[in-house]
C-alpha cells in the first residue's frame, strides 16, 4: 500500500467526528494506515482534526495553495485510502 | 441576611446554617422574614460608612442593592452624637488590592477564598460580635497569583482594585467578552472599556474552564497596552527606523516577498496570535510557495506532533482535574504557568484528598507536594506512587519537551500512563503549554521549532508575527530581512527592517484555542491605536499587494476558511474528545540524548518570577510594582509566618 506523498501535494487535512457512524471508516483508516503512511512520508503533514458532529472530509493542499477536497462520508477504510490515493495523483 | 420563616419555629431562622428536613415549610417572603431581613440590614448599615459617592464599589455593590430593595429610608442611628461610627484601620495588602476595612461587613468570603482556593492563610478575623475585625494578623501583604479575585468576591467596597481606583463607574463602562492571552488556559474575561480605553478586566464565569477566577497577570497587565506600542508603520533606513505610511511599507513588503525565492521565505508566530492571523499568514506563505511556517516553541518528540492533537495538548477536560486522586507534575509549576488550572489541582487536593508528586526543582506550590526526583532518570521511581490511583494524572511542562531529553521523557511517561489502570476516557498524560497561540498554531498546521528551522534553513525574509524570543537567541545576518507584525515590539522589532503595527487581543479579538484545544472567540473591545491594524487584515493587504488572491475579506469569510482548515476552530466552547493517542508512541523520534541525568528546570519557581515573565507583562507598570512588592515582602520578618 505504499503511497508516496510527493510532487505537488503539500499537506493533507482529515476532518472527522469522534463518534459518528459516518466517520467510522475514517477512524478505522487512521488506526490502520496512519502510522505506515507517516513512516513512508516523514515530515509530511497529515493533519488529523477531529471535531464532533462534522462530515468526514479530506482536504489536499497542493503547490501554490490550491486545494481539493473529497467527502469521506460512509466510506470504509480501504475506500478512504483509495480516495486519498486519487488526491495524491 | 438570609433569615427565613420556618413553620413551627417562632423565631426566624438562618437559612444558610439550617439543615433541610422533610416536610419543612419555608417562607422566604413572608412578613416575618422580610421584617427580620430588614432589621439585619439596618444593623449592617449602622456599622457601614455612608461613603457610597466615593466608593469604587458604588453601582456594583451588593449592600447597595439590598438597601435599595428593602432598606429603611430613615436612620435610627443616634450613636453618631456619642461614640461615632465604627472605624477600622486599613490593611496593606500590597500594590494591587486597596482596603477600606471600615466598609467591611464581615462576610469572611475573602478569608475563605484565601485559605481554600489560594492556599494562603494571610487573612483572618480577630474579636467577636460587634468588635470583630477582618485583617492580616501581622503586617503581611496578600500576594498570590489569584489575589485579584478577592476584589470580585467582596460584596462591598472593603477590597477594591488599586490600579482601577477612582477611574470609572460601572454604568459608564462598556463590556466585551474576551479571552485572556497571558497564559494558555483560555480564561474567559470581560474587558471593561470606556472612551476607547481598556480600564479593567474582570473574569467571566465558565464552569468548564476558569470557574469564576482570573489570574493576576490577566487582570492587571492590561496597562502594558497603553504604553510601549507600535502605532505607525516603519522601515529601517541607515540603521534608523523611519515612520511612514501603510502604502509605502506594503509596497516594500510585497516587493521583498516577490523578489525572494519561495523557500527562502519563512514566518514565525509569536505567543499572542489569534487563529485568523495564523490561518491567513499560512495561506499567504503557501500561495507564495513556501511551507516554512513555524512557531517559536520546539516540540518534536514524535513525528505525529502536529498531526494528532493528543500529542501537544491538555487531554483531560479542565473540570475533571478536580476529580483526580494522584497527580504527577513533571518539570512544571502550574501555579504560575496556568493559575486557573492550578486552582483545579488545589481543588482535587482539598476536596478529593489528591496526592501531588513532583519531579523537578523546588518551587512554590500552594499545596503539599512530595518531591520524588529531579530528572528523567527518576521517572521509573515515580511510577510506584501512581500505581494504585483510580484517576491519575501526569502533567508535563512544555519547557521539558524542548530539551534533548524530550523523547526519552515522553517514552517513559507514555509507558507509565499505559501501565496504569483507568477508565478508557480518562486521559492520563497531559502537556501544559504556556502560550495562548500555541494550540491554535499547531491546529492550523504550523510547525514547531522556529529557532532550529531558522538556523538550518537560513531564510532571506522572515515574517515575524510578534515573535521576539527567537531574536534574542539569534540575530539575523545582513542579507536577511525581518518583517515584524505585532503590537509591542521588543527584540523582534529591534532587528526588523520593516515594522507593521498590529493589534493586541483587546483590539482585534479573534479565535483562540486554549490548552485543551477548546476554541473560544474573543470580541474586540477597543480600536487599535494610531495606524495599527488587525493582524490578519495586514496579511490580507500584503497578499493584495503581491497580487495574490486570498478568498476572504471579512470576518464571515475568514471564519469559513477557518472551518476548512479545521472545523474545531468554529465549534466554539466545546472540548473535543481525543482520539488516536495510542498512535503517538509508534512514531516517537529516536533517542538522541546522552544527558538523561540532567535535572529539569522550571522558569517560574517563585511568585516574584510570575509577574514579569514575558515582554507583554514586563511592560506593565502594575506588574513591575507587584514584583517589587513580593521582593520587599521576602525581606520582611513576617514572610514565613
Automatic annotation (TrEMBL), chain A:
SMART domains: L51_S25_CI-B8. It holds the Pfam family L51_S25_CI-B8. The keyword Transit peptide does not apply. Residues 18-89 form the Ribosomal protein/NADH dehydrogenase domain. This is NADH dehydrogenase [ubiquinone] 1 alpha subcomplex subunit 2. Gene3D superfamilies: Glutaredoxin. InterPro entries: NADH_Ub_cplx-1_asu_su-2, Ribosomal_mL43/mS25/NADH_DH, Thioredoxin-like_sf. Accessory subunit of the mitochondrial membrane respiratory chain NADH dehydrogenase (Complex I), that is believed not to be involved in catalysis. Complex I functions in the transfer of electrons from NADH to the respiratory chain. The immediate electron acceptor for the enzyme is believed to be ubiquinone. The keyword Electron transport applies. Disulfide bonds join 17-51. Keywords: Disulfide bond, Electron transport, Membrane, Mitochondrion, Mitochondrion inner membrane, Respiratory chain, Transport. Transmembrane segments: none annotated. Belongs to the complex I NDUFA2 subunit family.
TrEMBL record, chain B:
One of its GO terms (biological process) is ATP synthesis coupled electron transport. One of its GO terms (molecular function) is 4 iron, 4 sulfur cluster binding. One of its GO terms (cellular component) is membrane. Residues 32-71 form the 4Fe-4S His(Cys)3-ligated-type domain. SUPFAM superfamilies: 4Fe-4S ferredoxins, Formate dehydrogenase/DMSO reductase, domains 1-3. The keyword NAD applies. Belongs to the complex I 75 kDa subunit family. The keyword Disulfide bond does not apply. This is NADH-ubiquinone oxidoreductase 75 kDa subunit, mitochondrial. Residues 173-229 form the 4Fe-4S Mo/W bis-MGD-type domain. Gene3D superfamilies: 3.10.20.740, 3.30.70.20, 3.40.50.740. SMART domains: NADH-G_4Fe-4S_3. InterPro entries: Mopterin_OxRdtase, Mopterin_OxRdtase_4Fe-4S_dom, NADH_UbQ_OxRdtase_75kDa_su_CS, NADH_UbQ_OxRdtase_ferredoxin, NADH_UbQ_OxRdtase_Gsu, NADH_UbQ_OxRdtase_Gsu_4Fe4S-bd, Prok_molybdopt-oxidoreductase. It comes from the Eukaryota. NCBIfam families: NuoG (TIGR01973). Keywords: 4Fe-4S, Iron, Iron-sulfur, Metal-binding, NAD, Translocase. Its cofactor is [4Fe-4S] cluster; [2Fe-2S] cluster.
Amino acid at each position: 500500500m505504499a503511497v508516496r506523498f510527493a510532487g505537488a501535494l503539500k499537506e493533507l487535512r482529515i476532518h472527522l467526528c469522534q463518534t459518528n457512524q459516518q466517520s467510522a471508516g475514517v477512524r478505522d483508516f487512521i488506526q490502520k494506515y496512519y502510522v505506515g503512511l507517516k513512516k513512508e512520508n516523514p515530515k509530511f503533514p497529515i493533519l488529523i482534526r477531529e471535531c464532533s458532529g462534522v462530515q468526514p472530509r479530506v482536504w489536499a493542499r497542493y503547490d501554490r495553495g490550491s486545494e481539493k477536497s473529497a467527502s469521506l462520508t460512509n466510506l470504509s477504510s480501504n475506500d478512504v485510502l483509495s480516495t486519498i490515493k486519487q488526491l495524491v495523483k | 441576611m438570609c433569615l427565613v420563616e420556618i413553620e413551627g419555629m417562632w423565631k426566624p431562622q438562618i437559612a444558610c446554617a439550617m439543615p433541610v428536613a422533610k416536610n419543612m415549610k419555608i417562607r422566604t417572603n413572608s412578613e416575618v422574614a422580610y421584617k427580620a431581613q430588614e432589621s439585619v440590614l439596618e444593623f449592617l448599615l449602622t456599622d457601614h460608612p455612608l461613603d457610597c459617592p466615593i466608593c469604587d464599589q458604588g453601582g456594583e455593590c451588593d449592600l447597595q442593592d439590598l438597601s435599595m430593595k428593602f432598606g429603611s429610608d430613615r436612620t435610627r442611628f443616634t450613636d453618631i452624637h456619642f461614640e461615632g461610627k465604627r472605624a477600622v484601620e486599613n490593611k496593606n495588602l500590597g500594590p494591587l488590592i486597596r482596603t477600606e476595612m471600615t466598609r467591611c461587613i464581615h462576610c469572611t468570603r475573602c478569608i475563605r477564598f484565601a485559605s481554600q482556593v489560594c492556599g494562603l492563610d494571610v487573612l483572618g478575623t480577630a474579636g467577636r460580635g460587634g468588635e470583630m475585625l477582618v485583617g492580616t494578623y501581622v503586617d503581611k501583604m496578600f500576594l498570590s497569583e489569584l489575589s485579584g479575585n478577592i476584589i470580585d468576591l467582596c460584596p462591598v467596597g472593603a477590597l477594591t482594585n488599586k490600579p482601577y481606583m477612582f477611574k470609572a463607574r460601572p454604568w459608564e463602562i462598556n463590556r466585551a467578552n474576551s479571552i485572556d492571552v497571558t497564559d494558555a488556559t483560555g480564561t474567559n474575561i470581560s474587558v471593561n472599556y470606556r472612551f476607547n480605553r481598556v480600564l479593567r478586566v474582570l473574569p467571566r464565569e465558565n464552569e468548564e474552564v476558569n470557574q469564576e477566577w482570573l489570574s493576576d497577570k490577566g487582570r492587571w497587565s492590561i496597562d502594558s497596552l497603553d504604553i510601549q506600542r507600535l502605532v505607525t508603520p516603519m522601515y529601517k533606513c541607515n540603521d534608523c527606523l523611519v515612520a511612514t505610511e501603510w502604502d509605502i511599507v506594503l509596497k516594500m513588503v510585497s516587493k521583498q516577498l516577490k523578489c525572494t525565492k519561495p523557500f527562502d521565505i519563512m514566518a514565525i508566530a509569536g505567543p499572542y496570535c489569534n487563529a485568523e492571523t495564523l490561518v491567513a499568514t499560512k495561506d499567504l506563505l503557501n500561495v507564495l510557495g513556501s511551507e516554512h511556517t513555524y512557531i517559536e516553541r520546539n516540540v518534536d518528540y514524535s513525528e505525529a506532533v502536529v498531526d494528532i492533537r493528543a500529542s501537544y495538548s491538555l487531554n483531560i477536560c479542565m473540570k475533571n482535574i478536580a476529580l483526580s486522586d494522584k497527580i504527577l507534575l513533571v518539570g512544571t509549576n502550574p501555579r504560575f504557568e496556568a493559575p486557573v488550572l492550578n486552582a483545579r489541582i488545589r481543588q482535587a487536593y482539598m476536596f478529593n484528598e489528591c496526592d501531588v508528586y513532583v519531579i523537578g526543582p523546588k518551587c512554590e506550590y500552594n499545596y503539599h507536594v512530595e518531591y520524588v526526583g529531579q530528572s528523567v532518570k527518576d521517572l521509573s521511581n515515580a511510577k510506584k506512587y501512581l500505581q494504585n490511583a483510580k484517576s491519575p494524572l501526569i502533567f508535563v511542562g512544555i519547557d521539558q519537551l524542548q530539551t534533548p531529553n524530550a523523547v526519552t521523557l515522553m517514552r517513559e511517561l507514555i509507558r507509565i500512563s499505559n501501565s496504569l489502570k483507568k477508565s478508557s476516557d480518562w486521559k492520563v498524560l497531559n502537556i501544559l503549554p504556556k502560550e495562548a497561540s500555541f494550540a491554535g498554531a499547531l491546529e492550523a498546521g504550523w510547525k514547531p521549532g522556529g529557532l532550529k528551522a531558522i538556523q538550518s534553513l537560513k531564510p532571506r525574509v522572515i515574517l515575524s508575527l510578534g515573535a521576539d524570543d527567537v531574536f534574542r537567541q539569534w540575530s539575523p545576518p545582513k542579507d536577511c530581512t525581518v518583517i515584524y507584525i505585532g503590537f509591542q515590539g521588543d527584540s523582534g522589532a529591534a532587528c526588523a527592517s520593516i515594522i507593521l503595527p498590529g493589534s493586541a487581543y483587546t483590539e482585534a479579538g479573534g479565535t483562540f484555542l486554549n490548552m485543551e484545544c477548546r476554541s473560544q472567540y474573543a470580541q474586540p473591545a477597543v480600536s487599535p491605536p494610531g495606524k495599527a491594524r488587525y493582524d490578519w487584515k495586514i496579511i490580507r493587504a500584503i497578499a493584495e499587494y503581491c497580487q495574490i488572491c486570498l478568498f476572504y475579506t471579512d470576518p464571515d469569510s475568514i471564519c469559513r476558511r477557518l472551518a476548512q482548515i479545521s472545523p474545531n476552530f468554529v465549534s466554539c466552547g466545546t472540548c473535543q474528545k481525543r482520539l488516536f493517542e495510542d498512535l503517538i508512541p509508534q512514531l516517537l523520534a529516536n533517542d538522541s540524548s546522552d544527558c538523561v541525568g540532567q535535572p529539569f528546570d522550571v522558569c517560574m519557581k517563585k511568585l516574584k518570577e510570575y509577574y514579569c515573565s514575558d515582554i507583554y507583562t514586563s511592560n506593565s507598570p502594575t506588574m513591575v510594582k507587584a514584583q517589587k512588592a513580593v521582593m520587599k515582602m521576602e525581606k520582611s520578618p513576617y514572610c514565613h509566618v
